[in-house]
Please model this.
Amino acid sequence: MRYLSIGGERVSVIGLGAWQFGAREWNWNEASRAEALRIVERALELGVNLIDTAEIYGWGRSEEILGEALSGRREKAWLASKVFPILPLPGRLRAAARASLGRLKTDRLDLYQLHFDNPVVPLSIQMRGLGKLQTDGLIRHVGVSNYSLKRWKKAEEALGGPVAANQVEYHLLKRNAEVMLEWARANGRLVIAYSPLAQGLLSGRYSAENVPADVRRFNPFFSRKKISRAARVLDALRDIGARHGATRAQVALAWVIRGGNVAAIPGAKTVRQLEENAAAADLTLSADETARLDDASARFVLPD
Ligand SMILES: NC(=O)c1ccc[n+]([C@@H]2O[C@H](COP(=O)([O-])OP(=O)(O)OC[C@H]3O[C@@H](n4cnc5c(N)ncnc54)[C@H](OP(=O)(O)O)[C@@H]3O)[C@@H](O)[C@H]2O)c1
Model:
C-alpha cells in the first residue's frame, strides 16, 4: 500500500467506501453483512486505512456495521464520516457527530465531512460548529464534500485552519475535480475521489443491455448513450490492463491516484473486489499509458 501524509497522518491512497453497507439502494440484504465484515477486516490487513462512511448511508446502518467491523482494531483505520448538512448549525453538528460516534463505537473521527455544500447557512456558522468539535477532540480533521475549489478555500478562511479534504466525484469519465488538484498538492490537502470506478461501469462488466438493477439505474453514466461513448475508455483500460496483468478496474484506480494528493475510495461488494482495488495502489502507469487514458477520457468528457 502507498500512503499520503495529511496533517502528519498516514492515509492510504486506496481507501474503502462504505455506502454499500446497509444501503437498500445497493440491494443490501442481511446476507451481505458477513461479507461486509470480512471486507473491512481484509482492508485493514492490506493496509487500507482510509474508510469512508456517512450518517445517511443505510440511515446509520453503514456506520453501525463499521462499528462492529472495527471493534478491537479501530486504531488501524483512518475513519471518515459525513454529516448531511440540511441545517448545519453548531448544535445539530454536535448531535450528529455524537450519534455517528455512537454507531461507530469510537470516541473520535479522523475526518468529519459536510456531505455537500449548503449555501444557505453561512460558512462561518457551519465552520464554527466543526471547529468546536475539533477543539473538543470529537474529530481530528474537518473535511468537506462536493465543494468547488472556491468554496473549499472559503471554508478554510471561515475555519481559520486547514479543511483537510474535499471528497468529490472523480474518475475517467468525470474530471472536473482536476481544477483543485494542484492547490491540494501545493497545500498538503487531500482530494478524496468518490465513485472512482464510475460506480462499476469502468470494470467493463456492464452494457446498455445489462445495467444493474440498483441505484445505478438513476446514474446518467449508465444511460445507453454514455455506455456506448465510454467504449474507447474501456478499450484503453483493457489493453493497458493486459500489459500489467491487471483488470480494468485496477487501471482505472491507478489513473485516479496517479499524481498528487488524491486518494480513491472504491466501494466493494466482495473481499475479492477489495483485494483487487487495494492492489491498484502498486500499479504504476507509464507516461504513454497515462496519455492514452487521458486522450480517451478527454474525448468522452468533451462533446465531439
Ligand atoms: N460524497 C458523496 O457525495 C459520495 C457520493 C457517492 C459515493 N461516495 C463514497 O464513495 C464510495 C465509492 O463510490 P461508489 O460506491 O458510488 O462507486 P465506485 O466505488 O466507483 O463503484 C463501486 C461498485 O463498483 C463495483 N466494483 C468495486 N470494485 C470492483 C472491482 N474490483 N471489479 C469490478 N467491480 C467492482 C461494485 O459493484 P458491483 O459488483 O455490483 O458492480 C461496487 O459496488 C462510496 O462507497 C461512498 O463512500 C460519496
